[in-house]
Design goal:
It comes from Colletotrichum plurivorum. The chain has about 1000 residues and is of the alpha+beta class. Helix content is about 25%, strand content about 25%. It has six domains: about 1-90 and about 215-280 and about 465-480, Nucleotidyltransferase, domain 5 (2-Layer Sandwich); about 90-215, 3-Layer(aba) Sandwich (Rossmann fold), CATH 3.40.50; about 345-460, no CATH class; about 480-545, no CATH class; about 590-815, CV3147-like domain (CV3147-like fold, 3-Layer(aba) Sandwich), CATH 3.40.1610.10; about 835-990, CV3147-like. Strand 35 and strand 36 (about 865-875) form a beta hairpin. Helix 9 packs across helix 13 and helix 15 packs across helix 23.
Length: about 1000
């Protein structure tokens, strides 16, 4: 008995539909009975209806036997991208946070116009959890009811409910309870809980929850439209929508969580191509599937190459059959979120790409310009004036289009060079997306697939699947159900394998509960990530189980007249309002200035910090972070907030040279694990509380300035809000010149200046002070013990010191250094020139290696995230022109880390110790930079990333008999001599250069 599934994929230009007989999936045609391409209609729904009607007619099936319809569409978020006020609701944000999170209010990084449309106020309520499950504060029921009444009174109807560590609250004791109380008090509100939307990382999860709440009303309306269309088609089966990760969500779920469906198109194409090629057998994994193959496995790696009219998109398929996911963050409507998205690399090569010849050298260039949709009027074979890649393929006799006689005058040499160029471009992007040394199988789809006329270098097999033109609709039709679990477990005293197995069982059961066939469910992804700076074995475990939609054993087919959705009158929409600044970014101020002519504001030896300065310093602090110090984005937002809400002139920097010897200089930075600091965002009172405690103990003097503990990473920016709070200047310098994992690895401590009394403080008013210790190492142990009790996210404030100490043993001008490095990277990015050259124009340094990450190993030791990263060299043609002298030959590079990168060594492809040639060690700075010039922290290293490794000389204070034992290799238990990369040159001073 035949049973059918229908898939629809809605693109910007075309709507594709396909119908499959799932009982014939093992036949050569893979069960595809009919497919259809229709123009996408403005209302979306009528185009979908027309496409489904066409495949039903084309297949002539008994449509009562259709088990499901799946739609992949971006329609839900078009209202966000277009900032369409008619389709967006204002959103009130309710944070369950106790005294925390005030330092970064909701909407902080929203584009200006979108924030104006959506911002419905914020309510900070008691609640939230610590990383280990303890309550920050119990829920206050009356407080919640009052907030609900206030929201109703304000006229807002949508609520984003965000609790600290809500994704780990599997019992639902906070967000779900709060939602129930709100709806009891105000039944007319739409409430979206953040734990249903995203993983830990409060700001990104909150942003997505706000966006979801804003489009909820539109999503329900659109979904009802889809259901009415199915009723008109007399289809009584379930309706599903494709999610961003390629799995399915039922129509009611999609109406409640529309934000999860905004980018399903690329995933549908990739999974559809894999299915059509017969590669849909799901494998079980026991480790990170994006990692390298183990043992002697020769399982091929599969890349999908989708060649369109203008671009070629390439994606790597994991053993699970799903695309490899991109790292980092995804912007939706200009808003930063943390959704799982396919990693797709695009190049400007397609069937309509223009082919140009240099009249002097005869060299041929292909793309990125394209005739696009005008191929049939612009290409030479169709009588047009433009030589395109399609013309080249026809001229070489590999395809028949148009009139070949029209291109008989194109020189053979041009055709040959263009063909070689096309082959080189495809080979380069395939090499870039390879995830291992295993043989490569390419699935070739898209209308421009005709460009591949011969074998590709490095590709063992090239497959053009049947029905490849409908791969996206087929991908929608065969979508699977997933069960995902994301937990943080304390492994101390427990069997790790048993904990992981229990987590896998939860994911397995969840997939079945959501509709997956039990016999088909497989665990396809297991990620284990030790948490930094903790020593109780805390580990974040992410498990994903997927399975096909279950088929009823005895399906009951509805009568032909089944129609359960009543037609409703379409509301007449008002004219769309124009919002010119809808997508204007509020966190990228440098885009509004010419960086070549931009001058910081320096008057009488005082540098008055601007938003542009903060952005440049943020990028530079990442470079100086040497893999540690935590991400800079949150500290950048805190500093922006402090600057925008303070009186003009309160945020300022002075040179260490401006200090008097008896000036009283304080310290204050963040201490704990980034996993907490990025979720339990600071309240803003922590650092001042710590400073007040230690200044009271040493003698209540007035403060004359604040000095940075470590310039590297987020802590390099943490002093700016504190300087504004006390109205004191920030001193241009720090105690490390980089980032280090412990408090005592500061030059001031190394040279005898005491750290104690030293305070830890949190936003609840808890302050712990270590009065004195026999060694700096014991101080670190005391601080770590107290930090665990305070939730592993607190302020640390060392003893204030006199100006004479800062001038003698601080590392000077490091804020200036960060500013110049940031400016160099941003200018190179804008000019599309080498950021490596730009960085070395700022300071001495060396490019150590250019390559691709092929292995990352992590484990917890002594409270730190330890591990190593192994890099392989790139192929010559794939290497950046400025990196030709790095990573030459076949040598690999190994970089061990303890939060920060410890040394860099050339080695063999296994990373074995006996073949290592160490070329740089701490205390010199080793940084790994991505293709955009931004630093990649040790927590963000991931298989397949293309990177440059640079090294910068450390300050001479680290290279003495006192400095080397604390900051050199022996400090990290490494039995090796120091290897440096040159002489340190003191950074230029922004104050000196621009104050003249």
């Amino acid at each position: 008995m035949s049973l059918y599934r229908i898939g629809v994929d809605v693109g910007g230009t075309n709507t594709d539909a396909a119908i499959l007989d799932i009982t014939a999936a093992d036949t050569p045609g893979r069960g595809v009975l009919s497919s259809h391409k229709a123009s996408t209609t403005p209302d979306i729904t009528s185009g979908i209806e027309a496409a489904i009607r066409a495949v039903l007619a084309g297949s002539a099936v008994d449509q009562r036997r259709v088990l499901s319809v799946t739609i992949g569409t971006t329609h839900f978020i078009n209202a966000l991208v277009e900032a369409d006020t008619r389709r967006l609701s204002r959103v009130a944000v309710v944070r369950l946070c106790g005294p925390f999170t005030r330092q970064i209010p909701p909407f902080s990084d929203f584009p200006a116009g979108l924030r104006r449309i959506l911002d419905g106020g914020v309510y900070y309520l008691d609640g939230g959890l610590e990383i280990d499950g303890r309550e920050i504060a119990p829920l206050d029921h009356e407080q919640i009811r009052q907030a609900a009444r206030d929201i109703v009174a304000s006229g807002v109807k949508a609520v984003a409910l965000v609790g600290i560590f809500a994704p780990l609250d599997h019992a639902g004791i906070h967000e779900e309870t709060c939602k129930r109380i709100i709806l009891e008090e105000a039944p007319g509100l739409d409430v979206v809980c953040s734990h249903d939307i995203g993983p830990p990382g409060l700001l990104e999860r909150e942003n997505a929850t706000i966006l979801n709440a804003a489009i909820l009303r539109t999503a329900h309306k659109v979904t009802r439209g889809f259901q009415r269309a199915m009723a008109r088609l007399k289809l009584a089966c379930p309706l599903y929508l494709s999610q961003n990760d390629g799995t399915l969500i039922d129509a009611d779920g999609a109406a409640d969580y529309p934000i999860k469906t905004f980018a399903s198109g690329p995933t549908n194409s990739m999974t559809g191509a894999a299915f059509l090629a017969g590669l849909d057998k799901v494998k079980t994994v026991v480790a990170d599937p994006s990692g390298p193959p183990e043992g002697d496995s020769v399982e091929p790696q599969v890349l999908v190459v989708d060649i369109g009219g203008t671009t070629t998109d390439v994606c790597a398929l994991l053993p699970s059959g799903f695309p490899r996911q991109a790292p980092g963050f995804v912007e939706v409507g200009g808003v930063r979120t943390a959704f799982s998205m396919p990693e797709v690399v695009s190049i400007g090569l397609g069937g309509g790409s223009k082919v140009m010849t240099d009249s002097d050298s005869g060299e041929v260039a292909v793309g990125p310009g394209s005739v696009g949709h005008f191929l049939t009027s612009q290409a030479m074979v169709f009588g047009g004036p433009t030589l395109t890649t399609t013309d080249v393929v026809v001229a070489s006799g590999k395809a028949q289009f148009g009139d070949a006689a029209l291109i008989k005058d194109v020189p053979v040499s041009t055709v040959d060079r263009a063909r070689r160029k096309i082959k080189t471009m495809l080979g380069g992007v395939i090499e870039q997306m390879k995830v291992s040394a295993a043989p490569v199988h390419v699935l070739l789809v898209g209308g421009g697939a005709l460009l591949v006329t011969e074998g590709l270098d490095g590709v063992e097999k090239c497959i053009q699947p049947i029905h490849q033109g409908a791969a996206n609709a087929v991908g929608a039709a065969i979508g699977k159900i997933s069960g995902e679990v994301d937990v943080i477990e304390i492994l101390e005293g427990r069997d790790e394998k048993a904990v992981v197995a229990a987590t896998c069982k939860k994911a397995f059961d969840l997939a079945i509960q959501k509709g997956a066939a039990p016999e088909d469910v497989r665990i396809v992804e297991v990620n284990k990530m030790p948490l930094q700076y903790v020593d109780n074995g805390a580990m974040r475990i992410q498990v994903r189980a997927v399975g096909k939609l279950s088929v009823p054993e005895n399906p009951v087919f509805p009568p032909e007249s089944a129609n359960t959705v009543e037609e409703e009158e379409e509301e007449k929409e008002a004219a769309k309002e124009s919002v010119p600044d809808a997508l204007e970014p509020t966190t990228k101020p440098s885009l509004k200035v010419d960086l070549e002519t931009y001058r910081p504001s320096v008057t009488n030896g005082v540098w008055y910090v601007s938003e542009v300065d903060l952005e440049l310093i943020s990028t530079g602090c990442g470079v100086l972070g040497t893999g540690g110090g935590g991400p800079t984005h949150h500290e950048f937002l805190k500093s922006l907030q402090a600057l925008r809400t303070s009186e003009k002139g309160r945020m300022r920097i002075i040179s260490p040279k401006a200090l008097k010897d008896d000036d009283f200089v304080c310290f204050g930075s963040w201490y704990g694990t980034p996993s907490v600091i990025n979720e339990r965002i600071a309240g803003g009172t922590e650092i001042p509380a710590g400073i007040d405690a230690v200044t009271k103990i040493v003698g209540n003097k007035s403060l004359d300035g604040i000095f940075i503990d470590e310039i590297g990473g987020g802590n390099g920016l943490s002093v700016f809000p504190t300087g504004v709070h006390y109205d004191i200047p920030v001193i241009d310098g720090d105690g490390m010149g980089r980032a280090y994992p412990t408090m005592y690895q500061e030059t001031l401590s190394v040279y005898g200046h005491p750290l104690a009394p030293c305070a830890l403080a949190d936003a609840r008013g808890n302050v712990s002070v270590v009065m004195n210790t026999d060694t700096p190492i014991r101080l670190e142990r005391f601080l770590r013990t107290a930090a665990i009790e305070l939730g592993l996210g607190c302020a640390v404030c060392a003893r204030p010191l006199p100006g004479s100490a800062i001038k003698a043993h601080g590392v000077p001008n490091t804020l200036s250094h960060a500013w110049y490095l940031g400016r160099a990277v941003h200018m190179a990015r804008r000019k599309k020139s080498s950021y490596i050259d730009a960085i070395f124009d700022v300071c001495a340094g060396k490019l150590l290696f250019t390559g691709k990450i092929i292995d990352v190993r992590r484990y917890v030791g002594g409270g730190y995230t330890m591990g190593s990263v192994l890099l392989a060299p790139l192929a010559d043609e794939d290497r950046d022109p400025d990196a030709k002298d790095a990573g030459s030959g076949v040598r690999h590079m190994l970089i061990p880390f303890q939060n920060e990168y410890l040394y860099a060594a050339l080695t063999d492809s296994e990373g074995s110790e006996k073949n290592q040639e160490v070329i740089c060690t701490v205390p010199d700075l080793i940084s790994i930079l991505g293709q955009d010039g931004e630093a990649i922290g040790s927590q963000d290293l991931r298989y397949g990333l293309r990177v440059n490794v640079i090294a910068l000389p450390a300050h001479p204070l680290w290279k003495t008999e006192k400095g080397m034992p604390v900051g050199g290799p022996k400090a990290f238990g490494l039995d090796m001599p120091f290897v440096g990369v040159g002489e340190y040159t003191e950074p230029r001073s922004v104050i000196d250069e621009f104050g003249a």
